[in-house]
Design brief:
about 270 residues, mainly alpha, two-stranded antiparallel ribbon, 11 helices, 6 strands, about 40% helix, about 5% strand, DNA binding, RNaseH_sf, HTH_Tnp_Tc3_2 domain-containing protein
Length: about 270
């Protein structure tokens, strides 16, 4: 008898019947004839399966999955409810105290298996762009959507009429108040009387201010943290800013001689800082 090419799959009921038949004394060759498969497949099923209380348990090789079926459903549900949420957002939403936290790579694999791949959202036609940072960034935004749903409204990039969805904050690390923007008279006189040499800032100076690294630190601390309005976002920024230890600031200040020397060596061109 000619069998179709490829590996034949067996349902749980069929595997259960094969194991039960072998326990009752049926030879594997007889079982192969009865279930229209090869003897090697019967031997493989008998080796990899056992019956406990009428249930077939397959002894799968390799490391067990870190996520349960319930967690897989929660991962898919979180992505479908908000296609723009990142793997970090999903990781926070599906994690509970008594369940191990799945890695971001595991979450992306579960979404890819379900057909939800990362894509750039389509912008709505004839709409102006606005800054919206309460739930995202100004960089590239990604969504996860099923194949063939590129122009579905829920997978398009939203826009806002007015740019009130962001918070603009100011911060500085400076040796003379606000640098060339603002100089306090008595502070300048204090340096002059004590003959303290100050850096001469050109009209277009190289941007090696360590405050840029402070912004990056602030972004890392608020990664995955959302806000429902501008006031809440500002409160989050203020709390995160105050939580940055002074050792971080001191490390940045200690790097200033190296930054200045790098600018000199590069003759004013951009440096790694």
């Amino acid at each position: 008898m000619v069998r179709p090419f490829g590996k034949k799959t067996f349902t749980v009921d069929v595997r259960k019947s094969i194991v039960r038949g072998h326990e009752l004394g049926a030879h594997p060759k007889i079982l192969a004839t009865q279930f229209d498969c090869s003897s090697s497949q019967i031997y493989r099923i008998l080796k990899n399966n056992r019956v406990d209380d009428g249930v077939v348990h397959r002894q799968s090789p390799g490391r067990p999955r870190t996520t349960s079926r319930a967690m897989d459903r929660n991962i898919l549900r979180a992505c479908r409810e908000d296609p723009r949420c990142t793997s970090t957002d999903i990781q926070v939403s599906v994690t509970s105290p008594n369940v191990p936290m799945p890695s971001k790579r595991t979450i992306r694999r579960r979404l890819q298996v379900a057909g939800l791949h990362g894509r750039r959202p389509v912008k709505k036609p004839l709409s102006d762009e606005s800054k919206f940072n309460l739930f995202g960034t100004d960089g590239i935004q990604w969504i996860r959507r099923p194949i063939g749903s590129r122009y579905a409204p829920q997978y398009q990039c939203p826009t806002v009429k007015h740019g009130d969805g962001s918070v603009m904050v100011w911060g500085c690390i400076s040796d003379t108040s606000m640098g060339p923007l603002k100089r306090i008279g008595h502070v300048a006189n204090w340096f002059r009387r004590r003959r303290v040499d100050l850096l001469e800032w050109p009209s277009q100076s190289p941007d090696f201010n360590p405050i840029e690294h402070m912004w990056e630190e602030l972004k890392r601390r608020l990664k995955g943290v959302r806000a429902s309005n501008a006031n809440q976002k500002f409160a989050q920024l203020e709390a995160a800013w105050k939580s940055i230890p002074m050792t971080v600031v001191q490390t940045l200040l200690d790097s200033m001689p190296r930054r200045c020397q790098a600018v000199i060596d590069a003759k004013g061109y951009p440096t790694k800082y």
